[in-house]
Amino acid sequence: AALEQFKSFVASTQSARGEFTQQLVKIESGTSKVSNKSTGTFTFARPGKFIWVYQKPYEQLLQADGDKLYIYDKDLNQVTIKKLGDALGSSPAAILFGSNDLEKNFTLKEAGTKNGLEWLEATPKAKDTTFDHIGIGLRNGVPEAMELRDSFGQVSLLTFTKFEKNPPMPANQFKFVVPKGADVFQ
Amino acid sequence: CASITPPTGPASEQAATARKYQEAITLGGRLSVQYQKDDKDEAIHGSFTWKQSKDRSSIAILSPLGQILATIEVTPDNATLVQSGQPPRSAADVDLLVEQTLGWPLPVSGLRSWLQGFANDTNNKTFIATPVNNRVTTRDGWNIQYPTWESDQQSPPQDRPKRIDLERQTAQAGKVAIRIVLDNWQTP
Question: How wide is the angle at C-alpha A24 spanned by C-alphas B27 and B87, nearest 5°?
Answer without folding.
Answer: 80
